[in-house]
Amino acid sequence: MVKTTTQAAQAFNGANGAKGNINVGAMVAFINANGGLGNVALQLTPNALANGVMFGGGALWRAMQPNKQGHIGQRGRILWACVNGLPMHTVNGVTVPNYAGVVTKTPAKLGQPVLLSTIQAAHLPSGSSVFANVNSVATNQNAVAAILNGGFNLSAQTANTYGTAFGKLVIAS
Each residue of 118-136: pLDDT tens digit? Predict the structure, then answer.
């Protein structure tokens, strides 16, 4: 008698060069095969924090910086949530994400993986999603795919980092 088992992959790696960007559809299949957003986490790779600068100092890093008025845009807050997580607070007895409380400081070292359910919660106010851009090369609405690809798309602004995987997806422990 032959016994067969099916087990999903334990990690989903990021891009391998500018022409080896990830397929968002495959990323979504990995998430679903492993039980969904609450069971999969984004683990930043060591090159995500090099010389005290996040994401190679490229377009992803620039999106995380305050504008002239001192405000960090929605894309930047989502990226910061990918790095530092999303704090929670209680409103009228209900625990909800504290979008304004996202830590926007570069960590001294990379921390624990951040659950994709947490990152999805950070996406919600902008209408973007961890599942966005399944049929697109550009990942303008999906910060996780952008981190795995080294940028939201390949352009003159991202040429130095696009194709550099700054993270991978892992099974949450």
Answer: 999 999 889 999 998 888 7
Q: With respect to residue 128, please indicate whether it lies within any of the assigned structural domains.
A: yes
5 belongs to a structural domain: no
Answer yes or no: is pLDDT of 88 > 70.
yes
Domain that holds residue 143: 11-171
In a domain, 1, yes or no: no
**Distance between CA atoms of 32 and 11, rounded to whole angstroms?**
13
Counting the structural domains of the chain, the total is: 1
Model's pTM, two decimal places? 0.88
Query: Tokens in use for 163?
Result: 């194709």
Q: What is the DSSP string of 123-158?
A: HGGGT--TTTTTT-S--TT-HHHHHHHTSSS-STTT
